[in-house]
Amino acid sequence: MSVSDSLWMWREDPIVISENMLNGKLWPKVSIVTPSYNQGKYIEETIRSVIMQGYPNLEFIIIDGGSTDNSVEIIKKYEKHITYWVSEKDKGQTHAINKGFEKATGDILAYLNSDDVYMPYTLRLVAELFDRYNVNWLTGLRSHLVDNVVISPLPAATTKFNSKLYKKGFHVPWVLGWNQQPSTFWSASLFNKAGRLFDESMQCSFDVDMWIRFSSFSELVYVRAVLAMMRQHSEQKSRTLRLDFAEIEGQAGTKYQFYSLWFRKLLMKSFRFPVLRKIARIYLGHPRFTRIDWDPVANDWKMIIKPFF
């Protein structure tokens, strides 16, 4: 067995899940869109991490940009598990994602890049939490897949999110940090309110642009669980282009109406001092965050809402 074959998605048979949730309801339809281009060395694990979960109401869409490696061969290998796929030239990753969501009809939506992977319980857990807590937007613990087998959570990553702070520019890597894209899921209703199209003028930060739009309609809920792993490798677009700061801060005062960057950083520093922290809390409208934790005593998930700082 190779190092790659030791990952959970290489199990022989899919996980078996009952046709109904514990409350008797049918599982909500979950739509996963995967954009792909020449990721043949990774895409099979991505596909298997979706389909081997055995989720009963899955809509899986793959939009390939006309790959010239073995990607199409791998997609065809699993096409009986794929709702829709196409391989044709497109205008890039964001365009491919938009093409995929044009086909999506699910109640819960997400996209998973062709080098990232889900955990074996991800879709089931997400569906259960959306149903139980009437969630519109959910994210998990930021985690990476290192050396093709090691799961590396980032304990220093932010686990507290607030809609006003998102709208005013605090949830960016150079201030508080943002939610990890493959670990984030949202409702169809929220997607519709936000316009349902990712901004194709952006090469790296189109996801963050959507998160900022989401924040006008809903609070982001954090669940203390690993939902996905973003693969770390030298060919990652986020590593090679490094456009996040330019794309987001370049529109901070026009498209987004952020506070000035110097002011955001000044407020962050003020959090260290009790008196200044109290003033900042009042100024920002007493922001709160929502988190779902596992309660080992109750043996169940529990939602908590607390002051942000």
Question: What does it look like?
Answer:
There is one protein chain. This protein has helices at residues 43-51, 71-77, 93-103, 122-133, 163-167, 188-193, 206-214, 237-241, 244-249, 261-270, 274-283, and strands at 30-36, 58-64, 84-87, 108-111, 117-118, 137-139, 143-146, 150-153, 184-187, 221-223, 228-231, 288-295, 300-307. The chain is α/β, with parallel strands linked by helices and 309 residues long. The protein has one domain: Spore Coat Polysaccharide Biosynthesis Protein SpsA, Chain A (Alpha-Beta Complex), CATH 3.90.550. The strands form two sheets. A nine-stranded mixed beta sheet has the order 3-2-1-4-9-6-10-12-13, with helices on both faces. A four-stranded mixed beta sheet has the order 5-11-7-8. The model has no long low-confidence stretch (mean pLDDT 91).
